[in-house]
C-alpha cells in the first residue's frame, strides 16, 4: 500500500544542513523486517515509523531504525517527528505539549510550530543518564580514531547511556578533532565493550563562540560512519557534564555543535536541572524543517 513519508533536516533552521531524517507515516501493519528494509532504502542515520499509540491520549508510537538496526531511543528522530506532528496538528496552535511512545518509554515533548514547514521541539529525557563500565583507555581510543596520545583532551574516556550506550572521548582542540578518522581494524575492539560501538568525540573549543562544546560521532557498526547530530549522545553527555563540571544548583543550558566537518552544521540544545548537586532533569531541543514530502509503496 502507499504510505506517506516526509524528510526533514533536524537541529537546524536551514534546509540541507543539520541531520536528515525520514518519517514514514501510517506505518501500522509493517513488520520489523519491512521497517528495516525501508530504513536501508532511505540510508539515512535514522528513519522513524509512526503508528497508532497504545494510549489514545498520546500523540503517536514511534519505532526508530538505523540502516542496520532498531534503536530504543534517539534524539534527532524525536525532535524531528515532534516538529512534523506539531505542524500537521496546526501550525497556528502555538507551543503545545505531546507525548510520544518509544521503546525506551514515554517521551514528553513541547512543540512550537513556526509555520507549515518548520518549528522547534524539546523533550524531557525519559531516562536520566547512567555511567557504564567498559570505556576504552585513552591510548586505545586514540589508536581507533587515527589520533595520537597528545590529542587526548582533559580527563579519560568514559561510557554513558540515556537509552543508547555511548563512549565519550575528550579531544584536545578543533584541530585534533578534525583529524579524527576511524580505523576499522581497532574501532570495535576499543568501543564495542558495552554493546554499541559508538564513539562521541568532544572538545571545549568551538567554531561558534556562542556554543559550549564541539563534537563528532562515529558508529560504523550501526551503519553510520559519521552522524551530523546525535541527540541520544547529548542526552547521555548530560551525565558526564554533571559529573565533571559540577554545575551549581539551578537550571543550565548548553549548545553542542556537531556536523561541521561534514558540511552539515547542527546545533543541539541541552537543558539541565541540578538539585543538591545531582542531575534531576534534562532536556534535548532544537529546530527542524521539512525538506520533502512523498509516498512509498510498502
Task: Give a written overview of the molecule.
With 298 residues, the protein is an alpha+beta fold. It has two domains: 2-123 and 287-297, Diaminopimelate Epimerase, Chain A, domain 1 (Roll), CATH 3.10.310.10; 130-285, Diaminopimelate Epimerase, Chain A, domain 1 (Roll). It is built from six helices and 17 strands. Strands 1-2-3-4-6-7-8-17 form an eight-stranded mixed beta barrel. β4 and β5 form a beta hairpin. α3 (138-144) runs antiparallel to α5. The protein is globular and about 55 Å long. The mean pLDDT is 96.
Protein topology:
Blueprint: E1 2-10, E2 19-24, H1 32-42, E3 47-51, E4 60-65, E5 70-71, H2 75-90, E6 96-102, E7 105-113, E8 118-124, E9 130-132, H3 138-144, E10 158-161, E11 165-170, H4 174-178, H5 184-191, E12 199-203, E13 213-219, E14 224-227, H6 231-245, E15 250-258, E16 266-275, E17 278-297
Parallel strand pairs: 2-3, 4-6, 11-12, 13-15
Antiparallel strand pairs: 1-2, 1-17, 3-4, 4-5, 6-7, 7-8, 8-17, 9-10, 10-11, 12-13, 13-14, 15-16, 16-17
Helix pairs in contact: 3-5
